[in-house]
Amino acid sequence: MSGSRAPLGVAVLGTAFMGRAHSAAWRNVGAVFDDVPAVAMRVLCGADPARTERAARSLGWQEASTDWRAVLERDDIDVVDICTPGHLHAEMAIAALEAGKHVLIEKPLALDLEQAERMVAAAERASGASMVGFNYRRVPALALARELIAAGRIGRVRSIRAAYLQDWLADPAAPMTWRLRAETAGSGALGDLGSHVVDQIRALTGSAVVGVRGALRTFEPERRGSDGPERVTVDDAAWALLDLDGGATASLEVSRVAVGRKNALQLEVHGTDGALAFDLERLNELTVTQGRDGWPARLLVTEAEHPHLSGWWPPGHALGWDSTFVMQAAELLRAIERGTPPSPSFADGLAVQRVLDAIERSAAVDGARIGLPGHD
Ligand code: SOE
């Protein structure tokens, strides 16, 4: 954004996959969108000094640090973007909000419901903005799907078929990581991928989840750790049926052992008068069926008038997975500038966490229906 205002100082906590994806977004957001406040990429914070130093240099940060608490004390940091493993989320986010910072945090919001509730309470007390990183809210085709559903273009939604399938744990020899330990990740494919799916179901339909039946499976109960075999304490795959307050039913399937699928978030929405289908492996496309006897038509969602696309390239010049983080950063910056709450909020993160928690509780009692608060 033009003007002489000082840039907003940003710090990212976390140097791994998500830290890199968010760093690239902070570097590009001002180049894509001219309506966002300027940012200064001040500090990248990580646990390992040499790795953090190297990553800070290659990702374009002014400084590297291994002391996130010291980063929160700095007056030149306005936005704290948390990309660490889940067990650090609550402590870091609450401290950042209490230090008066704006906070963006990767999904899932927290390890468990208790932490998620404390984080929402901290966000409600805070002066800064808070946002949870459900980056697929910014996929133009999904945002368009949401608009079409809200405008009644497929009639009343009856059912949703939602899957998120990856294969990076299909090999039994794949080593142990923090994502496979309950104490660092909370849950497995359920929290990692299911959180995106539940968020999309809520966002696309505008409906709340009122009850669930769930099942979880860990196909590989042990993985190679640094000191020999280690027990896996989270799920490899999860399934659930979700009842929505509008009367629709959604099926959910998530897996990190789905051979043949790399990053397939697949959503199909069936209404009384049409249907929509999307696959993240073809993220610029939405398949639209209008009318009960209509033919499915593939729509290329790259026009300037399609959601989130105004700052990008001419029609047909497709976006990639990394673009969603740029649009997410832009949404947070615009909200800070306007002084309005960004979306999705910590409260959205908590609502998703309640569904994940209910799926786990249902799975523990062989798929019995678990009602969500107010519907049990
Ligand atoms: C790993 O399964 C992962 O990086 C998720 O954690 C992300 O949220 C998803 O966007 C891609 O896959």
Automatic annotation (TrEMBL):
Alphabetized Pfam families for the sequence: GFO_IDH_MocA, GFO_IDH_MocA_C3
Transmembrane stretches, start-end: none
Entry-linked PANTHER family: BCDNA.GH03377
Gfo/Idh/MocA-like oxidoreductase N-terminal domain location: 9-134
Keywords: NAD, Oxidoreductase
GFO/IDH/MocA-like oxidoreductase domain sequence ranges: 144-276
Name of protein: Gfo/Idh/MocA family oxidoreductase
Organism superkingdom: Bacteria
InterPro entries: Gfo/Idh/MocA-like_OxRdtase_N (IPR000683), Gfo/Idh/MocA_oxidrdct_glycsds (IPR050463), GFO_IDH_MocA-like_dom (IPR055170), NAD(P)-bd_dom_sf (IPR036291)
